[in-house]
């Protein structure tokens, strides 16, 4: 197979020949490996760095360079940003921001402490996490838990403008980062467990004014779809495609929230993101495919108009949220270079699609224990084309309300949650943090009330049976073939975002608190260091003063660590996660710390 630098990444390195696809500052950051200017590393979401001073031959000598306490004891997701001499560090609620001067021993240049009503904590589903800041044009963008989007002066921390994106009284909150494309800030919304109707919104970087909003469900005009031009698996989507898939006006409280990651292709000017689970979790209350929840969406960045959709889990019966990142790369499939999008879904299937047309190229299980469906139908002539083939034994809809369906794999938190994977153009492999967890699931009837939980299911979670006994794996995935190249078993789910580098190593963190480095070709462990708390943050790297650094936030929490983070003990609390991860308390404790590593001087 020909190994080439993906055309998308190459396009980001071109200055005069490339089309103007974003403000100059974002392009400059992507082209400079010394910086870490985006949560996913680049618009393609590859979480790959060209830095190679730390490599597979010397990473075993890596040591702690310095640390920083955030002052918050909850789940720390996302990563800091590094722009020039300044590192920008965020926290979970209350979403504080620190600007650290790397040229002056990490001195705090400024801090921003938002004023938020603590009541928002009560309507945040699965911990008070926040997945990080965005930077563009000397501006830091913070999307708070209460949905207030704030533009801060990157040098002083002064507020430039702010706008409110939702209403916590209705259950609308935020946990996701934002993405700056062209002259717009792209933001999502959380709250699928409260009957929130999901949407993606673009605000002007200049003043925060609303540019466009695209809903996940409902009428065509509110979803920004063209019935004849928006495509699904090669065919026009058709008039009222969403309305026709819901009973009555259930779509108005139908979920499909957008709390995941957004990626962007400058060649097509398309943004890519996923929509979450339909509301309620009781499938009997919402017959139909519930479009367009659980869907990969491709939209024009400037207008929001939809180019194509692909629904991964029609009529979701298991809370397999579809918001995971869509990684863009150019890889060879069946002897032909293809511009692809690769998605590792909560439902346990890894999808490879043509990112221009939405054509489905590969759909295979990335955890062998997945049992709720046998396969995704790939025959284009079948009326089931593109749909997972559900196993009746594990169908909560077929088994009915008030029936406990047992042994479903994966659990609701999926074979992979939001923790982002990485792609290396050197190996053409994707490196994926995964969950190896199953569940029992009992749906029950529930009524909607604004601002109140709208779940309608009781869950319990446990390690996948007849396997290695642990709850996670870290895998290398061949997206062209749909195959695992190697897999490393872990005692707990791997809830940290991965990082691949040109040094032929891949980094990830564990819920016990270990930062690990492994050989990108073989998976051989080369380094480990235990940080003060469990890691659910995303590993990042940068260069400063001629040295390469690797950093990660530790602070146990998130859905997997909600028991520790919120002090919960009932096994069914945390939507079933408390019991499944009860043993975590034997290995780690609450924390909130940034740990930065380097090679010895």
UniProtKB/TrEMBL annotation:
Keywords: Calcium, Disulfide bond, Metal-binding, Oxidoreductase, PQQ, Signal
GO cellular component: membrane; outer membrane-bounded periplasmic space
Sequence positions that bind pyrroloquinoline quinone: 77, 131, 175, 257
Enzyme class: oxidoreductase
Cofactor binding, note field: Binds 1 PQQ group per subunit.
Binding site for Ca(2+): 193, 277, 319
Protein name (database record): PQQ-dependent dehydrogenase, methanol/ethanol family
Endpoints of the signal sequence: 1-22
Origin species: Falsigemmobacter intermedius
Catalytic machinery residues: 319
CDD domains assigned to the protein according to its UniProt record, in alphabetical order: PQQ_MDH
Domain Pyrrolo-quinoline quinone repeat residue range list: 36-362, 492-550
């Amino acid at each position: 197979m020909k190994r080439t630098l993906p055309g998308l990444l190459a396009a980001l390195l071109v200055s005069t020949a490339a089309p103007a696809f974003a403000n100059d500052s974002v392009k400059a950051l992507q082209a400079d490996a010394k910086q870490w200017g985006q949560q996913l590393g680049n618009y393609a979401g590859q979480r790959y760095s060209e830095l190679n001073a730390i490599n597979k031959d010397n990473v075993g000598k890596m040591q702690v360079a310095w640390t920083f306490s955030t002052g918050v004891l909850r789940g720390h997701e996302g990563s800091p940003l590094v722009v020039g001499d300044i590192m920008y560090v965020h926290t979970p609620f209350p979403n504080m921001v620190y600007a650290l001067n790397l040229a002056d021993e990490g001195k705090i240049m400024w801090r921003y402490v938002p004023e938020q009503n603590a009541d928002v904590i009560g309507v945040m589903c699965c911990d008070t996490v926040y997945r990080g800041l965005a930077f563009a044009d000397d501006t830091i963008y913070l999307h708070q838990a209460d949905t207030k989007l704030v533009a801060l002066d990157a040098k002083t921390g002064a507020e430039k403008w702010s706008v409110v994106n939702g209403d916590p009284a209705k259950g609308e909150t935020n946990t996701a980062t934002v993405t700056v494309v062209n002259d717009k800030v792209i933001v999502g919304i959380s709250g699928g467990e409260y009957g929130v109707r999901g949407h993606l919104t673009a605000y002007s970087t200049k003043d925060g004014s609303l540019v466009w909003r695209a809903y996940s469900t409902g009428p065509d005009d509110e979803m920004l779809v063209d019935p004849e031009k928006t495509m699904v698996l090669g065919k026009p989507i058709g008039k009222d495609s969403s309305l026709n898939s819901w009973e009555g006006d259930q779509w108005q409280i139908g979920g499909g929230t957008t709390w995941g990651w957004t990626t962007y292709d400058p060649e097509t000017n398309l943004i890519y993101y996923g929509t979450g689970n339909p509301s309620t979790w009781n499938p009997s209350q919402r017959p139909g495919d519930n479009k367009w929840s659980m869907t990969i969406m491709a939209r024009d960045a400037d207008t929001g108009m939809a180019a194509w959709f692909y629904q991964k889990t029609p009529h979701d019966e298991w809370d397999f949220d579809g918001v995971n990142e869509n990684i863009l790369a150019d890889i060879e499939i069946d002897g032909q270079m293809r511009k692809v999008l690769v998605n590792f879904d909560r439902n346990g299937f890894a999808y490879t699609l043509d990112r221009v047309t939405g054509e489905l190229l590969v759909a295979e299980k990335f955890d062998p224990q997945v049992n709720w469906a046998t396969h995704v139908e790939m025959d284009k002539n079948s009326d089931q084309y593109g749909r997972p083939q559900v196993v009746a034994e594990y169908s909560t809809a077929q088994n009915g309300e008030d029936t406990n369906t047992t042994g479903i794999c994966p659990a609701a938190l999926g074979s992979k949650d939001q923790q982002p994977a990485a792609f290396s153009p050197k190996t053409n492999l994707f490196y994926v943090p995964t969950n190896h967890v199953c569940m029992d699931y009992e749906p029950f009837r529930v009524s909607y009330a604004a601002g109140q939980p709208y779940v309608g299911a009781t869950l319990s979670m446990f390690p996948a049976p007849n396997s290695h006994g642990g709850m996670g794996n870290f895998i290398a995935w061949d997206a062209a073939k749909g195959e695992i190249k190697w897999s490393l078993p872990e005692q707990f789910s791997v809830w940290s975002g991965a990082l691949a580098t040109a040094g032929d190593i891949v980094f990830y963190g564990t819920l016990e608190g270990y930062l690990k480095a492994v050989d990108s070709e073989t998976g051989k462990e080369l380094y480990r260091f235990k940080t003060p708390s469990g890691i659910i943050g995303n590993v990042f790297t940068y260069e400063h003063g001629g040295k390469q650094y690797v950093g990660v936030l530790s602070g146990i929490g998130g859905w997997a660590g909600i028991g520790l983070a919120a002090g919960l003990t009932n096994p069914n609390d945390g939507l079933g996660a408390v019991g499944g991860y009860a043993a975590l308390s034997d290995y780690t404790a609450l924390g909130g710390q940034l740990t930065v590593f380097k090679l010895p001087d």
